[in-house]
Write a structure and sequence with these properties.
Length: 358
Amino acid sequence: MQGVEARLEKVRGLLRDKGIDAILVMQPENRRYLSGFTGSNGVLLISAEDAILITDFRYTEQAQEEAPGFKVTECDQKISETIADVARSLDIRSLGFESDFVTYRQHAALSEKLSFLDFVPYEGIVEGLRMVKDEDELAMIAQACDLGDSAFSHILGVIRPGISELDVAIELEWHMRKKGAEGIAFDVIVASGARSALPHGRASGKKLETGDFVVIDLGARFNGYCGDMTRTIVIGRATDEQRRIYGIVLDAQVAALAAVAPGKKGSEVDAVARDRIAREGYASAFGHGLGHGVGLAVHEEPRLSPSGDVVLGPGMVVSVEPGIYLPELGGVRIEDLVAVTGDGCSVFTHSDKTLIEI
């Protein structure tokens, strides 16, 4: 993985470009990306010369171990007061804050204590760096995806009519953790029958029944990095209509995978899948974007959507997940996670995409 110093130098170059003396980093994924610190409470203050990690007594030793490139400062008062003390000691004249993360209450407290400097909003500085993954990051995402593939293979031997969605979700999480996941990237989605038409239907006590579509959306977290995959299966024999809907979604997904390439905007890739689904008469049944970036967060930039204006480049990781959702029939979504390469994409997810009947 890129060293801390390399990442800090990139941030400092962006600070110079924007004319800001220093920035606060409070968003957890940004904080971890720049420092390596995994604790739940901490703030980074990064200037042209200094890198300081402010945390409380619970985490000082951990911070010193995980973030050796940072000077660890223990906060024994209100965090806004410690930030102000540090800013004064460094003679900072302008300090940026993450305007898309800092709450109104936090901003009010910080503004009061930092009245001696220019407190300026910024967004996207760290997120822009996080969009492009290095080889070590890609390897960790690949490991997370392997854990997801293993869990899906495992659950096919567990699913049967009469088992509840909650039981399926719990079994998936248990398997991923047993195989080495540090946790789940998001709450496992298991939605069956009419509930499968809910794109983010939480697992419920509903029992799987013969004839149900079952949408399974899962992701492991490995060393902080997320996996994300979705497969749709049928309990019993699929009807002709279920096969047709599944085939449309699979065709759109395969076409979109082939369209992922450097130099394309997210909106262009989205249009490939969206147009195929629309041609079959289901434009209104595909109401979400085609995909999103995945890394330390399961939803990050870039986006594959009608408004996705980021140009794809090598090292970016995105999901490709078209779907059709019909309240009277149920839903189908098929999702793979891919890394953009120099001439296309590399697919992390390896679970079978033919329609599985159980």
